[in-house]
Amino acid sequence: MLSRIPTTLSKIVILSALACASLLLGCDKPEATTQVDPEVVAKENDARATGSACRQAGRALEDCYSMNPTAPRAAVFSGWKDMNDYMRENKMEVVKPEAEMAKAAGASSASATDEAASASASSSASGKGKKK
pLDDT tens across 15-35, in order? Predict the structure, then answer.
């Protein structure tokens, strides 16, 4: 009878340990207690994308901050830094934005048009362009 007491006691200890362990298995859900606002997550993701786009376009970090004042700076920097590392690892070159190229081309063609218009206006005012 004495030999059965330790085995019964050990069974009780083992069963109680298993019961406690099974109860603790349900405690691995930290996200249930910490709710993250989806708008905040989306805003941070947008800021990271903005930062990486600024780096790919060859813009300085400060220019990126000034162009996007409402974006969280930490997320912009994180995206900029990630893209910088990626571009260095893959030996990528800066891609100039086409919108800036179009503005520059539009400005140069507008200035050329203005110069041509002012040249024709000055020639007609001086009488060189008049027919006799």
Answer: 787 776 766 666 666 555 667
List the structure tokens of 49.
């994308």
What is the chain's alpha carbon radius of gyration, rounded to the nearest angstrom?
35
Q: With helix as H, strand as E and coil as C, how does 8-38 read?
A: HHHHHHHHHHHHHHHHHHHHCCHHHCCCCCH
What pTM was computed for the model?
0.51
CA distances from 123 to 52, 120, 126, 130 (A): 51, 5, 5, 9
Residue 40's closest CA among 72, 76, 73? 72
CB-based contacts of 121, cutoff 8 Å, min separation 6: none
Domain membership of residue 99 (yes or no) is: no
For residue 71, the enclosing domain spans: 38-93
In a domain, 78, yes or no: yes
